[in-house]
Amino acid sequence: MSELLYKELRLAAHPSLYVFMCMGALLLIPAYPYSVVFFFGCLGLFQSFMFDRETRDVFYTALLPCPKRDIVKGKLLLAVFSQLVQLTLSLPFAFLRTLYLPEGNPAGMEPNIAWYGFGLMVYGIFDLVYFTQFYKTAYKAGVSFLIALIPVTLGIIAIESSVHFPGLGWLDAMDGPALIRQIPILLAGAAVYAAANVLAYRIGARRLERVDL
């Protein structure tokens, strides 16, 4: 498994993917819809798939001494790695925002525990839709991205607008009791993310095995 990820990071990942992994720095922007960070995480992965299509990475990986389904596993490892690293790198900026911009975010949700839980859900849904769509043919990266972008966009809109509804203000809070109340959302997000990626791998691998490369 580590060899697959190493191959993806050294040969298949587009340089822009590493740039978008650092987009957690956007959390320091006042009055900004921070869930857009999740969109950049999806965009970086899409650009890597476009790069791989032009370099015929799927065909190259199929020639290696590994099962055909490992093509999907490698790409999924790259997606999980980039998404989790992006969220991890955003943590210092979330703390700095709390210290230096304590007045809150009028544009949407604060980068709190609930925000990270919702982010994992968005990434899980994107991976599930994108991988299952892309590996129907293993080359329609753009169409697959547009299809996967629909639930991602709806999810981002729902996250950022939810805090403006009556009774949901605790989703936007940064005080101790509210953060504890948000922990189930983080756990639910982690569960959705894990389940969605396992399902994405199984469906994507099964579909790729039927594709004539």
Task: Provide a compact summary of the structure.
By secondary structure, this protein is mainly α. It is about 70% helix and about 0% strand.
What gyration radius follows from the Cα positions, in whole Å?
18 Å
Spans of at least 5 consecutive residues with low confidence: none
- Tally the structural domains: 1
Helical stretch count? 8
Helix and strand content put the structural class at: mainly alpha
Count of extended strands: 0
Apparent shape: elongated
Biggest sheet architecture: none
Fraction in helix: over 70%
Terminal CA distance reads: 23 Å
Mean pLDDT: 90
Oligomer kind:
single chain
- Strand percentage lies at under 5%
N-to-C series of helices and strands: HHHHHHHH
Explain what this protein looks like in three dimensions:
There is one protein chain. This protein has 213 residues and is mainly α. The protein has one domain (2-208). It is built from eight helices and no strands. Helix 1 packs across helix 5 (70-100), helix 3 (36-54) runs antiparallel to helix 5 and helix 6 runs parallel beside helix 8 (176-208).
Distinctive features:
mainly alpha; 0% strand; 213 residues; single chain; 8 helices
Q: What's the SSE blueprint?
A:
Elements lengths: L1 H11 L2 H6 L15 H19 L2 H6 L7 H31 L12 H22 L6 H22 L13 H33 L5
